[in-house]
Amino acid sequence: MADALRERTAQLLTDYLEYCARGPGTPARSPSTREAAVLRSVAAVVRQRHERFLSDYRGYGGNRVELVAQLEREILAHPQALSWGRVVALVTFAGTLLERPPSGACSNLGPDPELELELGEWEASVRQDCRRLVDFLCGRLTGQHRAWLEAHGGWDGFCLFFTPALLSWKRLLVQALLSCFTAVILIYFWKRLPFIG
Questions:
Q1: What is the pTM of this model?
Q2: Which of 26, 57, 61, 194 is the most exposed place for a label (fewest CB within 10 A)?
Q3: Angle between helices 154-162 and 34-49 (to 10 degrees)
Q4: pLDDT band at 174 (very low <50, low <70, confident <90, very high)
Q5: Is 185 exposed, middle or buried (0-12, 13-18, 19+ CB in 10 A)?
Q6: Residues 6 or more apart from 130 whose CB is under 8 A from it?
Q7: What dihedral do alpha carbons 160, 16, 150, 42 form, nearest 10°?
Q8: Confidence band (pLDDT; 50, 70, 90) for 38?
Q9: CATH superfamily entry for domain 4-162
Q10: Measured on CA atoms in the order 9, 11, 14, 20, is the torsion positive or negative?
């Protein structure tokens, strides 16, 4: 039987990590799901706030999966320490590792710049690591952290958590106004109909 949470998690991670791994000047595909749009939006804020730290990891040429695994062990070690913010931080970091550094810049944390991979090798390495990171993160989130994810509403809970309350109120207000408008129209037409009887 299919595991809906795992499939949805894999789709979300694939969407975000491929978004990060795209080449310079390559237009981004539209987010594949609502949670993918929310993740991109929240991750952009995280990246902006922590630009200085994350910029050192762009173009990382080492073992990306091992580095993400180390970070995952540190920030998601205990279930009580788990939060949507930490999940976003981990996924954002993984995405940063797949980004190409700006032209002319080299990562301080990768291998010796003289041994830099050829462009084709770099892209192949990023594609392979993108798949490996999706598998690793999906396994951890829907394995070890599954109970937490389910207790917090899964990816629908993620969207609700990061959707500002104002948007929820606007949505409710619009629904209420449309309901009132519909009721007024129905009453108006009901009063105009001739009674048969």
A1: 0.76
A2: 194
A3: 50
A4: low
A5: exposed
A6: 14, 17, 18, 21, 98
A7: -30
A8: very high
A9: Blc2-like (1.10.437.10)
A10: negative
Tokens found for residue 12: 């979300």
- Can you read off the two tokens belonging to residue 143? 């394995």
Cα–Cα distances in angstroms (integers) from residue 34 to residues 24, 37, 113, 126, 163, in the given order: 25, 5, 39, 25, 11
Straight-line distance from the first to the last Cα atom of the chain, in angstroms, rounded to the nearest whole number? 59
Alpha-carbon separation of residue 40 from 33, 36, 85, 144, 162 (angstroms): 11, 6, 13, 24, 11
Of 40, 61, 57, which is closest to residue 96 (Cα–Cα)?
57
Decide: helix, strand or coil at residue 99: coil
- Over residues 40-85, the pLDDT tens digits come to 999 999 999 999 999 989 988 899 999 999 999 888 776 667 899 9
Q: Is 97 exposed, middle or buried (0-12, 13-18, 19+ CB in 10 A)?
A: buried
Other beta carbons within 10 Å of 195: 4
Q: Where are the domains of the chain?
A: 4-162, 164-197
* C-alpha dihedral (25, 30, 33, 37), degrees to nearest 10: 70
Residue 22 sits at the vertex; the CA angle it makes with 149 and 73, to the nearest 5 degrees, is: 35
